[in-house]
Amino acid sequence: MTSQHQFIRALTDPAQPVPVGLVSPRGTADTKRFAVYRNNVHVSLVGAIAARFPVTRQLVGEEFFTGMARLYVGQNKPRGPVLLHYGDSFPDFIGQFPPAAGLPYLPDLARLEAAWTETYNAADAAVLMAADLNTIAGDALAKLDLALAPSTRLVRSSFPVGSLWSAHQTTPVTIPALSGSECVLLTRPQAEVRLTIIPPAAFTFLKAIEQGRNLGRAAEAVLADFPDFDPGAALVGLAGLGVFAALDKEHVDV
Amino acid sequence: MPFDTLPARSGLGLKAQHYAQIIAEKPELGFFEVHAENYMGEGGPPHRYLAAICEHYPLSLHGVGLSIGGEQPLDRDHLFRLRALVERYRPASFSEHLAWSSHDEGYLNDLLPVPYTPKTLDRVVAHIDEVQQILGRRMLLENPSTYVLFEESTIDEVAFLAAIAERTGCGLLLDVNNVMVSAVNHRLDPIAYIDRFPVHHVGEIHLAGYDETTDDAGERLLIDAHGSRVRPDVFELYRYTIAHTGALPTLIEWDNNVPAFDVLMDEVRLVDEVLDGTLNRRLAS
């Protein structure tokens, strides 16, 4: 009898022989037949990673990417059958993968791609419009707790990964200068994912709001480091990108 | 408005790269099929497009991750996700595979084979009973494509599938490409497989293209690849099947190296000719 445990062990370790009891119509163990299953598992999981990290793949080339993804897949099987978020730990894996060490921006670029999928598949929700802020009474605005929309993601990198990603959305690709940090915002304002490179002050402002500070406290936190920060303008601009979840009813003046 | 049954016409697997064209052109087509797991994200463009497409076409929901042939209990969380999807889209059909794909080590994303014994039959029957109870509807079970045989098997595949359908009340999804792949791989007669198949249980047919290699002895080994047009011998077997069963909902599966939508529509027209032909013969008789 061939248990599924034995089947999987042989499937995931090519050094193992074909499990006893699995045969060709000639009644013999057949390596090439069993290899079809081994190959299907690897090719389909590498394909899932390739689909989620297309720019990473373009940057390193097909052969390098497939080799790197095969190693990852060998060590990290999906936990369940929904593969939309398979590969969450792939950016960290790239950061530990010595052959990729020459491309120091690659882990962050992969982090941006992982975040892009999260934005793409996040729950649908109404977003705060800039005009909604007019319904808040003057002194209540500073005390307002805003929540980020379910689709909002923030990625900060010591490399210009937002520009690098954007450069790969058109052909021919013109690679930008690879120096300088970037703060990247991903939102889904009109149903499609939108990538915006935002100033560090706006990034700090959003992080403070994400951590639960009200608008007044968040603005104070930013002004400590960025004295020129204009919180009102930032709020209107960010709301226009669909960053914030719509207000609860209790906040809206009827 | 939800559609209750799949029409006996040709259908296509829905691919993200074709969303916009389908919505703009509304091609003449019997139904669309999607892999359930691809629509288990919470929201976003996939759901928006699928909802729009479901306003114009019946939907077939096809699961690939339930692991019905697994030794372990079914994944309840996954079953509930499936139920939520069924309630949201009210598909005309839900189908899954006679295969397994999950174990302690994780999910393997391939349809792995099951030995055919009284014990595995009981297990599969219990799992299908559970699925149908939780989803509150009848499902279709698809015959597999396989590359190895189990020495321990004591029941042949058609009898195994027929017994499952009898005991659970589920329908069957007859994948004609899988019949050809398994028949060639295991030196069986595909015509005899179709002749013996309990066609009164069949609710849908699948067609796809296979790839070809050789085994250790250098003999033909077909691979269920879903990356090309339906091969001529599979198409002949399909003609034979439809002559035998009458018109049935027929899906063209093309999941890898997906071509332009117009290429898929060329395949659709070939299938519709077969389905129309069988109607005409019956009208003339």
Automatic annotation (TrEMBL), chain A:
Protein name per UniProt: Putative DNA-binding domain-containing protein
Superkingdom as given in the UniProt entry: Bacteria
Domain Putative DNA-binding: 4-94
Automatic annotation (TrEMBL), chain B:
InterPro entries in UniProt: MbnB/TglH/ChrH, Xyl_isomerase-like_sf
Pfam family, one: MbnB_TglH_ChrH
Gene3D superfamilies: Divalent-metal-dependent TIM barrel enzymes
Similarity section: Belongs to the UPF0276 family.
HAMAP family the UniProt entry points to: UPF0276
UniProt protein name: UPF0276 protein GGR20_003582
Source species of the chain: Devosia subaequoris
